[in-house]
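hey m, so remember when u said the tokens were messed up on ur end? i reran from scratch. heres the input so u can diff it against urs
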Amino acid sequence: MRHLFNVIFLGFALTSLFAQESIDRSFAFQNDAAKKYSLYIPSGYDEAVPSKMILGLHPLNTSRWNSTSWRDHLIDFVETNNLLLVCPDGGVDGRIDDPIDTAFTTVLLDSMALWYNVNPEKIFVMGFSWGGRTTYSYGLSNAEKFAGFMPIGAAAEAFSGNESWFQNAKDKPFYIIHGSTDSPTRRFTPFVSALRNNEACVETNLLQGVGHTVDFSNRLQIFTDAFNWLDSQECGTSSIQNILDTQINIYPNPTSNGKMMKIDSPFPIKNIEILDMKGAVLYSIANSNLFEIDSSKSTNGVLMVRITTDEGTLIKKIISQ
């Protein structure tokens, strides 16, 4: 997989230097010789600053929707909110949740962390219709990746709301947008209840007189309000994050290349990952609170460490010399 990322990265290097750009590309993946994806880089993107990013999952209607048309539909929204946008393509059948598509989506998200300066704590997911359905299924099956979820008119009646991945909704923020004439008793209410029963933080906007469409009036403001709500939620995690931040310490910091660092934690440490400032994992150590720093992997003398404990996950900055 690393070889794949390196190949993609080399072919992408020049493109990623420019902001406010729509990008349509593909690469060979599994049995697809040219698996497509579309990106949008907002004008406010600064490669020196970790950026918020949103995954956009398109609807199932091959006569209108694919990664490119869905990306174009969201440009005003992501430009207004200064979001990197990544849209995988569902292929010939248009279904964005086939096994090849969900695997491809994961590769794309990991690749974006190499291509751009992505804030790993501020990655969101949104989708309309079949893409809204996949916002539930893929999003919650990979809940640790996402800071917030925005299902829009989810075509989700095939779900019961009792799927095992709903258990991953605890302390996750969901802003659900749905039309009041789009079968809400089947496609809306059961999922609001399932999320709340699993201790998610849920806000809703049931659009009066709206059916199964994403072309409703005032769309930009509705999407922006939803995103701002998601981005502002701490959803039951603030207290434990404060505890982790105040009680877990790294020393010495700064440290020199090749020197040992130690994490002092009152909680058992399950894993330590060293990341560059783009969020890419450089190396990891399991079940230890000692690690050797390799500052040669950082171009600006700054790395990050992601510490996973039974109580939660914490990211801290390391100054290396």
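this time it looks ok to me. Residues 2-232 form a domain with the Rossmann fold fold (CATH 3.40.50.1820). if urs says something different then somethings off w ur setup not the seq
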